Amino acid sequence: MSQVVEVSLKLPARPQIKSPAFPYGVRDVRFTKQAELDPLPKVGDSFTMTAGALTVPCRVLQRNWDEHKNMFVIACEYGGTSRISNEDYLTILEASDWTAKTLL
User: Fold this and answer.
1) pLDDT above 80 (res 69)
2) C-alpha angle 19/62/39, rounded to 5°?
3) Does domain 3-102 have CATH number 3.40.50?
């Protein structure tokens, strides 16, 4: 059974990325998106998300129920190589269905 969740994605730091929204860099930025997943991934599982035409590999770090949102929040890290290209990072940063939030 599919379930709507919030995916919170941490991408590898890219010091070259500059954005007016994040003038101090993107190290402490998380990208969130609501998605319908089936099955609900467990800690350690991998799954893919999209940002425009880009397919983003995600690895689950944590899965928690959020009472206020009434849904699971899936904390993930970029599941590809330890590096992400500037082009792919900017694709996710500029994707209309992802929201960038700073932790600061």
Assistant:
1) yes
2) 105
3) no
